[in-house]
Specification:
By secondary structure, the chain is α+β, with helices and mostly antiparallel strands. The chain is 43% helix and 21% strand. Among the domains are: 65 residues, Transcriptional Coactivator Pc4, Chain A (Transcriptional Co-activator pc4, Chain A, Roll); 40 residues.
């Protein structure tokens, strides 16, 4: 059995040997360092990051040896600075693309376990959450109008092309007839 630690006695009262050690309190700066979930910020090196909630977890983008990395990592405070911790992962763009490609399968699996996921709205990043539905509807309407205009242009081109083909065919037919007439005259 390990020996019991003795707490240093203070002048006012003797130390209680069996008393549990006081828990360390988080400094006020660490609580202030917690970032707002989903809001883009920049670290001390100018790299963008987004808070994802809980225990100073962040998603950040940085560069290492010429490669862009996306990191999902817990951070801790030391000397008033937030530093990346051991818990986390850094992905290259190639690895991130592979991860994104399996997300539909992951979502399907989680749905089979009765877990739902919020789907992000991939639109202009400058729009706010309230503006997104209207912006998406406007984009859909514009795309439909563009598709209709493209379809009309295609039909007009097809009609023009058919008329040109008919003219070429009729010209070819009349040339053939003239050539046949010449040959028959020459034979006579």
């Amino acid at each position: 059995m390990p020996p019991k630690r003795r707490a240093a006695a203070t002048k006012s009262a003797p130390a209680d040997v069996d008393a549990p050690a006081a828990k360390r309190q988080k400094p006020a700066a660490a609580a202030a360092a917690t970032v707002e979930k989903g809001k883009m910020m920049k670290d001390d090196e100018g790299n963008p990051f987004w808070g994802i909630g809980g225990q100073n977890r962040r998603v950040g983008v940085s560069e290492f040896r010429g490669n862009q990395l996306v990191s999902i990592r817990e951070h801790y405070e030391k000397d008033g600075k937030m530093l990346p911790g051991k818990k986390g992962i850094s992905l290259t763009v190639e690895q991130l693309n592979a991860f994104i490609s399996i997300l539909p399968q992951l979502e399907t699996y989680l749905a089979s376990k009765k877990v739902t996921m919020d789907r992000p709205a991939y639109s202009d990043s400058t729009t706010t959450a309230e503006e997104e539905p209207a912006a998406v509807e406007e984009e859909v309407d514009e795309e439909e109008e563009d598709d209709e205009e493209d379809e009309k242009e295609k039909e007009l081109k097809d009609e023009d092309h058919e008329e040109e083909e008919e003219e070429v065919i009729s010209e070819d037919a009349s040339e053939d007839e003239e050539a046949k007439k010449k040959k028959t005259k020459e034979r006579k």
